[in-house]
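Troubleshooting log. The previous run stalled partway through. Resubmitting the same two chains, unchanged.
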Amino acid sequence: MAVSDDDLAHLLRRTEFVVRPGRLAELKSLDLTNYAAAVENVLNIGLNGSPALPAYFQSEDTNSGWDQYVAACSFWINNMVAKVRPFQEKMTLFWHGHFVSAWWDVGKGYHMMLQTQMYRDNALGNFRTLTQNMAVDRAMLVYLSNAENRKGAPNQNFARELMELFTLGVGNYTEADVEAAARAWTGYNADWPEYVYQVYPNRHDNGLKTFFGTTQACTGPQIIDEILLNNPTKKQIAARFITKKLWEFLAHPNPPAAVLDAIAPVFANDMDVNNLARQILNRPEFYSTTAKQGLVRTPIEYVVALCYSTGASPDQIGVSWRAGSAGQEMYQPPNVSGWRPNAYWLNTSALAGRADFARSMTWWLRDTGRPFEDGNVIYNRTVADAVDYVAQFFGIYPLSTTTRNALIAAHQAERNATPWKNWWAPTNLLTMIMLAPELHMA
Amino acid sequence: MLDPDISAADALALLSMPDRAGDDRGPNGWTRRKFLQAVGGGILGGAALGTFSDQLGLGRVGLGRLGLDLQEAFAAVPIGSHDGIVVNIVLYGGNDGLNTVVPYTNPTYYAIRGAANGNVAIPADQVLALDGNFGLHPNLTYTKSLWDAGQLAIVHGVGYPNPDLSHFTSMAIWMSGRFGAGSGSTGWVGRWLDGQPAAYADLMAATIGSSVPLHLIGAVRRAVAVPEDGDGMFGTGTDPAEIRMFDGLRAFSASSAGRGQWHDMYAGVLKTHLNLAKDVSPGYSPTPTCDDFVRRRTVAARLINANLGFRVLDLGLDGFDTHDNQPANHPDLLAQLDLGLATFFSTLDPAYYSRVTVVTMSEFGRTPYSNDSAGTDHGTANVQFVMGPNVKGGHYGQPPSFANVTDQWDRLDMTTDFRHVLGTLLDGWMGGGATTILGGQYQNLGFFAAGPGDPPPSGGVPPIVTLPSVETEFVSMNPQRLFDTRTGDGGRLGPLGAGESWPFAIRGRFGVPTGAVAVALNLTAVDASELTYVTAWPGGQARPFTSNLNPVPGMAVPNLAIVRLGNGGDVNLFNNTGSVNLLADLVGYFREGTSFGLESLVPARLLDTRDGTGGRLGAVGQGETIDLQIAGQGGVSSEPQAVALNVTVTEPSAASFLTVWPSGEARPFASSVNMVAGQTVPNMVLARVGSNGMISIFNNTGETHVVVDVLGCFDGDANGRYVALSPRRVLDTREGMGAPLAQVGQQPLEVVLLGKGGVPSSGVSGVMLNVTAVAPTANTFITVYPGGSGRPMASNLNAVAGQVVPNMVLARVGPEGTVMMYNNGGVVDLVADVVGYFTD
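Second attempt completed without errors. Output:
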């Protein structure tokens, strides 16, 4: 089976947000008897280097937290647009939506930056390590209240979500397990105002806890080891839980059981995420029609596509304050369960949010003379050619017949209505193409 | 942004809705006119159109079943006279019912979460007591008024068997309305929608926000999502080029693109949005200027008022998952909920009162014990509110007992299955179908006194509406006469009798726009048959115990009244005893807006014809006009839009009136101050300033001295926005209200204004008060000035011994939120009613 151009484009769109012509050419030059070489190329995030988090994000901007938030939004989108191997950023987004904390809830922006940088540095690392790091991360300690979880009056928030949302899923643990885990995590705290992680032995409940039927004096980190390492049943459940979630993030909802059966046990052995991604991206099912048509671009991914095609910076289209109305406020998942795929994004008011991005981008393009300074560039083409020209600028190829016909008809109607060359016809064509369904599919 | 949290595995699968191939299920022509056209054409035969199942086999092969462009055939249907509307408020996170409806006489409640245990209990002396067992959280003041009006049903102990403590599963169960196998895929409102006629089911339910929660998702249909902020909403443009673009965007869904379901769904939803935008845009105008939740409530009410056919409106308030520091978070949430309820009912058109019920829900209650992060953890049984004019107020269901709560992880046992609440709603208010929708029998809890559209029960009154706070700007007008009961101008001939109320419509008339929130009237009472008082207050409200005028036989008593308009745009006037003629001149109105505000000043004297202050020495003669420089004087800016003045006439030689208007313009026929010979009369005047920075003052008859003090100026650089309130008495030295029970001598009385009578406790620069001096023992004047300032040479009120004299006062508050009231001679009782305030 030779790998098709369409397969490679799909792989790139799902892992690197957009199909960059240079990347496509690079993959096409590899051995295409199977997917392995292309996948290895995509996975090679080491080429990004490991730049440190910029200094501005390593402390609180006491003068203007909002400016810091705006900078943080731009920082991440720019990473997604410009990194040599953007899959690292895609995985950072995955962890951010999985091990959720939220900027405005946590209250200290730079803690969120430290957290997402930790996800970035461990994007394709070891899941056990990542989970342990996450548990004592300052933002998470505040977001899920473990900062205050102490002996005598344990707070169950973190313990519950650790199992329900982060590792096992509902139904794979009992209330007693939650209570035990909460007790085990007592004393792993962080205090106002800087919330530096600290273990307080006198706040820790040293007593015996019965967790998954075994009674011992567990510490917090040992709980994670129980789930992900020591308990053979739970380890498999956790592996399947994460495998399923990553498949749904990259391919489509509801993976076939055969895929999970094949991949999850392998992941359970070492919990190596790089290998998990490798397995997923090498599956033929990843290249099925179901997968290729299986995901809607999230608002952030849509913005990345726009910024990549146009060269606009995220701030120029107001990502920091517009993304929320499209349904995805950056660094602020709506709650600890993160975001949802597909239909979740497709409702009337969220689409109005995307339309606002498109409109804002339209004005910026006209102001900066992209992709054309002069409307004659459009008018000197036939209607159909003009449509194709703008569509190519946004990396949409090919347009579906339905969309293309609609665009041609609309642009023709515009030219008919105002036979003299007016400003609106090219302008509206830009907006329409940015709202074409093709640009909103992942 | 609001987001419902329903990550139960089934719910997740469901949001994906794999078998939804585009928007063909949805109507496209929303207007009533198109619907009627289609009906008139005999085309809509029945429910066989547009159901999703039709399309499964056919796929998207284009338009025109029945040879008709279906996209144009459907429309919303106006709300029928017996159609019930449900407004569903979801309190996301798990609301703490025990601190919402507080068992304040139960010692166990204080034992388990009082001072010894996290101190999250609400002190007994702070609750709003409903009876000897329960009280509402102190921030639920509007909710309490609903209870007092018999329009709040509290259902206790609501939950479901085998409670789940996960947000997502529990919320999925509540939203689904069923539990057990296969339950998590649709919600109770969604299944209700599934059973509605296809022709208009898609515009019957809406959520205000950007994602559609499970309870609004059916097997075939679901609610639309309407943004909470419609400012410049995409799709409302009217430019021809934009309209051509919108048509082009609609065509993306002309046929299936063959690129999968999500592509088609995107195209379909885009079209739905464009069609929806036009019809819901009235809901966003004027833009509500308030907090998110209150804004959603405003939009919800307006959407009902627009009569587009919405029968279910859903909105959420997030943040109830108070694991930590509940006392710092929970009260604010309840305050938002309460304000949202007040805003909703006051925005709602009274025509819908008997058709609207508001319901709260939350995925669970919380642990009875606190968790020593001064918070509570996920619980079980909870209280639920059902509110509205046709609700039979009271307690329902058995409050759960604390008998099984012995340690911090014990939770309350439920006593009322939530499906009974849903069933009562469905069958009692939403037209039926409870058994099918809920998949089982339920019990009618009986919290409706009457069906939708039936008159509220006898003794039931429309909700006591407290009008929401709206920041406004003042637009001054040249004075114009609104009414005069002596002549019949304005529609009423003849004095107001004892105990008589008279409504007068203002909004939309006399140049007062439909967006006006309050009006400034110069009210004058003449020909009083005995000492009485007159009250002006917003139409549609219960009459407050306040006064604006104190007419006395033989005198013309004027006073500026700043009155908030009621829902219907009217004001009410009431006379207490005897009979009295009333006349009113309109001098301006307040509308939502922020382009110019008021700067309230320390009062400064600008004119005193007795001593030449202001450049005029000597009384103003008959028919004489004098000009007074205002701009740049006394703290007034150089280009004020208008000023608030206190104008006092003293030693008038004859019955007369003064008119104050912008210098350089024609004198209007209106009076700013009325007098009789020998009477000293103060009145607040809101006057536009002429382009030369001056005002003109005209005296009609005889001669009189005139004193003018400036209290505030309106201009574009000032920050103070006016918030008109319903009048409330905050000071009465005759009763010890707001001050010690004692007459006031020459020692200035310090009065706290912040946090009283509807005035917030911070963010206030000045308060508009009607101050009345009651029967001073000597001729005197009263000066009101900010606490902490020196007393200025100015006066707000003048009274002769034994008189009762009111005047509107704009009082700038001092740094401690107080004002001083100084009485110059003898002793006097002072009364003050708050009618509004200026922000800072």
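Takeaways: Strands of chain A lie at 188-190, 197-199, 209-211, 214-216. The mean pLDDT of chain A is 93.
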